[in-house]
Amino acid sequence: MPHRLPRPHRDDLLIGLAGVLGGGLLWTLGLHNNPPFFGTPQWLGLVALAVISGAELLRRTAPVAGLVIGTGAVAADLCSGGLAATLLMYTDLIYAAVMYGTPATARNIPRLCVLVTAVATAVPLAVVREPWTLVIGMLVAVFTISPAWTGVLVRNHREEAAAARLEAERVALLAELDRREAVTAERARMARELHDMVAGHLSAIAIHSTAAQSLKDPAATEEALGVIRENSVHGLAEMRRLIGLLRDARDDEGEGRPAAAPTLDALDSLLEQARSTSSPEGQDFVLHDERPAGSAPLPAPVELAAYRIVQESLTNALKHAAPGRVHVTLTHPANGALEVSVISPCGPYSEQPTPRAPGTGTGLIGMRERVTLLGGTLDAGPVPGPTGTVWRVRAALPLRDDNQP
Q: Which of 141, 191, 345, 381 is most buried by a 10 A CB count?
């Protein structure tokens, strides 16, 4: 298929039409810029006017070709007497070539205009040797250098504006990505907190409600209902604490008051709650705090992560572990990481196809996320023990100063 030139812009059509009408009016009135040179007929000025008006149609689509055509037309116009409309359209073609041409064209045309002006100034001065010849150089500068450098300034301004828009769009995109990442991270944190705070209570409720349904002993049923009520109250309190954290609860003075986060000092209460939840023939929970006395306080993120890991491990032990003793051990070597270990017995309960209470399957995922955020390590799985296979959860939490909630 033959190559088709792009359609000229509407403004270019208007510029060309205005140039033809204005130049035709000037020619009719006999308003020429100079007398004809070399005996050139004045009607040639009309031809040059028509040609340069047609070149205006190329000012955006083919600016260099339009400038070349316009240069020939303006030379013929000057020889035939010159029309102001032709010169004005030629300055517009120079401007358009710088504005819409390639970067190399935008660099070279102003230099070429400076060279032409220098030649137009030096040659008449050298030939005639009269000061008035400097006016020729000034006129050439007005009609060549001025539009060329105007095009350079406008083009640079537009390029800077386009670069600023791109930078603003990039910053907005990065801000949106950061916002989405922050929302995703916050949702994950909320999911971990919700699971760790409520899953244990709901598991205890599920276990003891099952026992209450299957037992015919009124005393055992009453005890199971008491455990259910206690865990319901604790679960509701934890939910209220989480809701208060999300709503940024405020005190009476209007200042922000963060909700209290659990610490390792509350592990005794956590184990006591697990003992009350477990059935008489179930698990016994023992805490071994081997941290040195008088050690420095732990960073809040590390302490919260350690507490949640123990809490989730105890919940899993109540669901899956065989009857026996569950050991919770805390160690903190000098200049080392805080190590948390929870060891529970494996046995017939662990070999059952289903646990005693339904689970979500996200407990280990949440623990790994907490440990990964702090740059630590987590191992969870069966290992050989003194009396057989046991299930061990062991986490190492580094105590870096840059750990943040």
A: 345
